[in-house]
Specification:
With 462 residues, this protein is an alpha/beta fold. It contains 14 helices and 25 strands. Strands 13-16-17-12-11-19-20 form a 7-stranded mixed sheet, sandwiched between helices. Helix 2 runs antiparallel to helix 4, helix 3 crosses helix 4 and helix 9 packs across helix 10. It is globular. Bound molecules: SN-glycerol-3-phosphate.
């Protein structure tokens, strides 16, 4: 009906002076579902200035009070799970049940962050000088953690709420102000989530949410905005090509279940999705058969129906996935299912006998298409995994724990899962990517630490 959702600045909902809006296309209907404000650079600058002012007072607000407000926001967010989940269904075609899970998980994440924050930020360090050569015990160093200032968060489309609060919570508990630039698809869910913080009663200007085209107000990578905020440290979660290495002694039913869950949940649109299966030749046929049987049972369709496989986020994403599939076809991969696509909806597809000359052996489809590469030794699997530019997660299936640990040590990824598919959660676990997969380590505790710097006061005795 032409309504344009307002952006959030200085504790109020505003229309942009640009008079322009950005349309959000529903991946299922491919019609414009919602519209958000196209904020101007000047409006973003103003938000940053307001955030700087609000942050000063917030940093002086007692830690327990900050935690109390976060707990309140968490509770309100959970109360609003149904309407927020509905936005996720309409904006990013997340299956209805998973959309609710994302919101509830986000509320839990905020509460856990508040609890963890009061503990780790409530503790400082005392150092004495005479441990270092040449010193007497005449200096006492008191160190504690202080906020960075203004934190800018740019979450991706696949978790517009959860990957926003995973920054908002740690930033706020640590005494920072927070500016959110949500993904265009997912922006309305994010605005609704910000509304929950508004209702909780955070000081005005402390949290803001600007919407618009990344190319105009975000810069290529968000670094343009982060520089304005004076935020030097960066924490980034980027792509992945998570390998699933399957050895001969693995529990093959467990393997098949994890390949399907890991490779096809949210239609493969997770940075932690299984993106290549590296399987010992001797067990490959059996596993491929088991996986195919499970894929045949997946429900393919609209997210409202709780389908397992739903339309991918944009038409260009679907076209990209199709490009990888066609390349694999030309180069002779075995199609375990017929390739099928309607609009943005792509049916689940397992590609067997993929070889290293195929693009899909290395590129990240971010869709329900999974390559299987047959290997003859664990070393071959490790080699393929490490030849990737990405290094997010990986997994190994074997009953031999000693072997699993050795392989884990050899894999150049931020995390290795033994006998389960890659996953970020539980949300307090460290989460990091090596190589092109990111900078810094997330997870509640690490994120709180990353959003602080150390401040020392040294007492010098005569
Ligand atoms: O792609 C986003 C990444 O954070 C994955 O999270 O919970 O699906 O493993 P999760």
């Amino acid at each position: 009906d032409g309504e344009v959702f307002k952006y959030y600045a200085d504790g109020e909902w505003r229309s942009s002076a640009s008079g322009k809006s950005v349309g959000i296309v529903n991946p299922t209907t491919r019609q414009t579902q919602y519209k958000v404000q196209a904020c101007t650079q000047e409006e973003v600058n103003k938000v940053m200035e307001a955030a700087k002012v609000a942050q000063k007072a917030w940093a002086r607000t007692p830690l327990w009070k900050r935690a109390e407000l976060l707990h309140k926001a968490a509770a309100i967010l959970k109360e609003h799970k149904a309407p927020i989940a509905e936005c996720l269904v309409k904006e990013i075609a997340k299956p209805a049940k998973d959309a609710v899970t994302e919101v509830v998980r986000s509320g839990d994440l905020i509460s856990y962050t508040a609890e963890e924050g009061v503990r780790i930020l409530g503790e400082g360090k005392l150092l004495v000088s005479d441990s270092f050569p040449g010193n007497e015990r005449n200096k006492y160093c008191l160190s504690s953690k202080i906020p960075l200032g203004v934190v800018l968060a740019i979450p991706p489309f696949n978790y517009p709420v959860n990957l926003a609060v995973s920054k908002i919570g740690p930033a706020l508990i640590a005494g920072n102000a927070l500016v959110l630039k949500p993904p265009t698809q997912g922006a309305v869910a994010a605005l609704h989530m910000v509304h929950c913080f508004h209702l909780a009663g955070f000081p005005k200007g402390l949290i803001s949410c600007v919407t618009g085209k990344g190319s105009e107000i975000g810069g290529d990578t968000g670094i343009a905005i982060s520089k304005k905020a004076g935020m030097v440290p960066l924490q980034m979660e980027l792509g992945g090509k998570d390998a699933c290495i399957v050895l001969e002694d693995a529990d093959l039913d467990l393997v098949a279940a994890n390949i399907v869950k890991g490779g096809f949940s949210y239609s493969g649109q997770r940075c932690t999705a299984v993106k290549v299966v590296l399987i010992m030749e001797s067990v490959a046929d059996a596993v491929v058969q088991k996986v195919n049987a499970k894929l045949a049972k997946l429900k393919v369709g609209p997210p409202e129906d709780n389908s397992d496989i739903t339309p991918v986020v944009t038409e260009s994403s679907a076209n990209f996935i199709e490009g990888l599939v066609m390349d694999a076809k030309e180069k002779g991969a075995t199609f375990c299912q017929e390739y099928r696509r309607e609009g943005n909806l792509i049916w689940p597809l397992l590609l067997d006998h993929v070889r290293p000359d195929m693009r899909i052996a290395w590129e990240e489809p971010f869709g329900p298409v999974l390559p299987v590469i047959r290997i003859n030794s664990a070393e071959e699997g490790i080699h393929h995994c490490n030849a990737s530019n990405f290094g997010l997660q990986g997994c190994i299936f074997t009953k031999d724990i000693n072997k699993a640990i050795l392989i884990s040590d050899a894999m150049e990824t931020g995390t290795v899962q033994i006998n389960s598919a890659p996953a970020r959660g539980p949300d307090h676990f460290p989460f990091q990517g090596l190589k092109d997969s990111g900078i810094g380590s997330q997870g509640i505790t690490n994120s709180i630490n990353m959003m602080t710097k150390v401040k020392s006061t040294v007492i010098n005795l005569p």
